[in-house]
Amino acid sequence: MDLPVEKWAAYARRRWASLEPCLRRKLSLAVPLRDTFLLCVPLFQPADEEFLHRLAARSWVGKDPRAALFYKEEGNKRFQKKEYAAALMLYSKAVSHNSPEMSLCYANRSAALFHLGHFEDCLEDIDRAQAQGYPNRLQPKILLRKTECLLLLGRLEEAAGVISKVESKIAMGQSLTSTTRQILLRKISQLKVKAHKKESSPVSVPEALSKTQKDLEFWEENGKISSAFSSVSLNFNSCRGRHLVATKDILPGESLVKEEAFVSVLSPGKSLLLQDSAKTTWDTRVTNGDLHCHRCLKRLLASVPCGGCSYAKYCSKKCAQLAWEHYHSTECPLGALLLTLGVFSHVALRTVLVAGFAEVSSLVKQFHGDDKELHKAEATGKSWDETRDSTADMEGLSEKAEPLIPDCEDVGQYRGSYQAVFNLLTHAEKHSPEHKFLCSLSIVAICKKLQERDLTILSQGSCESQSELKAHVTTSAELSPELKILGEAMLRHMLQLHCNAQAVTSIRESESGASVVTDSEQVRLATALFPVASLLNHSCDPNTSVTFSGTAITVRASQPIPRGQEIVHCYGPHRCRMGAAERWQRLLCQYFFECRCQACLDELGSDVTGTAATGDIFCCSSCHASMQGEDVLRCSSGACTLLVGRDYLLRQLQDLQVQVRTALGLLKDKQPNQAVELLMRCRVDAENFLSAEHMLVGEIEDHLAQGYATLGKWQEAARHLRCSIQIVEAHHGPSSVETGHELFKLAQILFNGFAVSEALCTIQRAETVLSVHCGPQNAQVQELQEMRACLLELPRSLLHRVE
Ligand SMILES: [Zn+2]
Ligand SMILES: [Zn+2]
Ligand SMILES: [Zn+2]
Ligand SMILES: [Zn+2]
């Protein structure tokens, strides 16, 4: 999803192979990105553009009144089944396409919002419906909904005003049948009674307001590094590059960095990408774009669609407006192209749009002003980037420590500014020439499109220069000088993203709603650049945890960090998830360095290289001792003579994984009985050949707990979850966030099963673990606190009940 779609990548590979050898050599050698980019501009031929255009046409990003009608009807079907959340999503899809029935779509969505209890949002949609010309004959209906919302929100005077409006409408209502009139009048009198009752009971201030103020975290900002706390400092040496170090002893759970993304792009939904052009119906699947604001990533309720496209939806008018001003006016007509070229291209474009042409141009020019130093660096055999900075670079380049930290402002300050983004490592010399060619060609494609369609991004200049530009554009197939600068910067950003892109993730709870026990998964919401968090080096055994809120990242200590120790986080390959050999391969491939973290040194130092991932996962089917060996495995207990081929065992493992996935599907389809039955069979199968600590065994136990919880069998659910927790603890450690999530589920199960004292214990453990990793504001932490409060309010007799 980050890189261009495979068909375009394959096309670029073919183009690369067909280039003249001398041109290929030239491109392979071109170290300054400017040269790479400029060499590629004339290579992007009309035939390439045509091919890309055909690929892009498969993504549906425009507006279509027929789609609006289709989604509205699908929404109505769900609404009738009382599936209001699903109906809401479909109505939102409907309003993102313009149609003559917009007002009805908004009105229907307001009804769904009403049933879901979102009264403020309901009122907004009622206003939107009316602004879009909601039919007069239906007015009384929507006004009564408005009255009910206002009453429920305690806004009595406004409610009274609307009631009298409805009454006059009904009095005038020529087209109302007498039954409708009667129904409406009865409803009004009911509402009047409600309003009267409300008036006599004072409305309390919403609790949430005072709560957020209380929970504001203490924030002592760092004078030298923006967005960092004073407990960290920025250091530099030749082998670690720039890195962050603790200036004092840090406790688990302390925040270290809290940074707003410089730029972030919502990951598109799969269904947007793979639209089959032959299909006549529209996709009703819910994607990231339906669930989260295109700009701030907030969870969407009554989304505000972009006026120009159907793919950008916002949480509010304000977000829509800000996005339009800062980047979307340029991006809007490029939607299909950007989907085809992948998220990295999109982030690269948005980065230069957010920074603004003046800033980009000044840094690019400054960079080339340093050309002399570049040649000096080349002469000593180092690349430009390595001499400037080596964030993730561990090769010893020079023994002498630099006196100044690169890319800091005069007074040694480091800011999360465009300058910091611009100077992030590109590793240009380490990417394969084919990859650089693909990136360059993709960026040229964007530049060509910008040249054709939209020149407002360059409007920092005068009006004259814009018309000059237009003249230039129409007469030449070349890129304008401004777009050459932007293109070079975008190519730079695209290559940087390879190492510096941060996935913004969120825990999404399953939509099934059938179970009281959370079934959640981590989903990738967006790809972002965080210049300050990018200062953190990698470790396979990190001392921090990372969480996101909207487009902001928070880095917290996950264990005690003594003063002077480096602060590190994991780029992905974690000690608990893969063996050293696999981690090394991944890090070398994507981040171009050989990891020398403690976990790697320990594992590589011992003889059991790489066994953590593959060894000891199978057990003997007759005596349950572990199976050992390479292609043929032998039971490790002396008494047994069992021999089994590794291929056979791996096939068995694959079959079991398929079965477990099937069971999970049954759980999601609200068939817990069948799911439990299948999972119990899986468990027996697993016992026959998998070691008891295998993660798949843990998954089976976890799903069993989920199934039993859905059936209300709390004791069985708790029993299976405890098995799962044991396995998760063995893999990730007892204070890991993974264990925290499992403990949270156990707390929910015990809470629902009224196992009061055990629930209180588990709540305590889960809260301790989760608040270290996710902070006190975390939704699960808050829910745990509510569970505790609720249990403590139970009558004493219940608390002392023998369990
Ligand atoms: Zn927003
Ligand atoms: Zn748009
Ligand atoms: Zn490592
Ligand atoms: Zn055996």
UniProtKB/TrEMBL annotation:
What GO biological process, any one, is recorded here? methylation
In its keyword annotation, does this UniProt entry include Metal-binding?
Answer: yes
According to the entry, every stretch annotated as the SET domain falls at 230-572
Assigned keywords, A-Z? Cytoplasm, Metal-binding, Methyltransferase, Nucleus, S-adenosyl-L-methionine, Transferase, Zinc, Zinc-finger
Reactions accelerated catalytically:
L-lysyl-[protein] + S-adenosyl-L-methionine = N(6)-methyl-L-lysyl-[protein] + S-adenosyl-L-homocysteine + H(+)
This entry carries the following GO cellular component terms, namely:
cytoplasm; nucleus
Give the UniProt subcellular location, in the record's own words: Cytoplasm; Nucleus
Show where the MYND-type domain sits: 293-332
- GO MF term (any one): histone deacetylase binding
Identify the CDD domains for this entry: SET_SMYD4
Q: What is its main location?
A: cytoplasm
Q: Mind telling me which Pfam families this protein's record contains?
A: SET, zf-MYND
Q: State whether keyword S-adenosyl-L-methionine applies.
A: yes
Functional note: Protein-lysine N-methyltransferase. Monomethylates PRMT5, modulating its transcriptional activity. May also act as a histone methyltransferase. Plays a critical role in cardiac development. Acts as a key epigenetic regulator of gene expression during cardiac development via its dual activities as a methyltransferase and negative regulator of HDAC1.
Name by which UniProt lists this protein: Protein-lysine N-methyltransferase SMYD4
What organism does the UniProt record list as the source? Chelonoidis abingdonii
Instruction: List the gene name.
Output: SMYD4
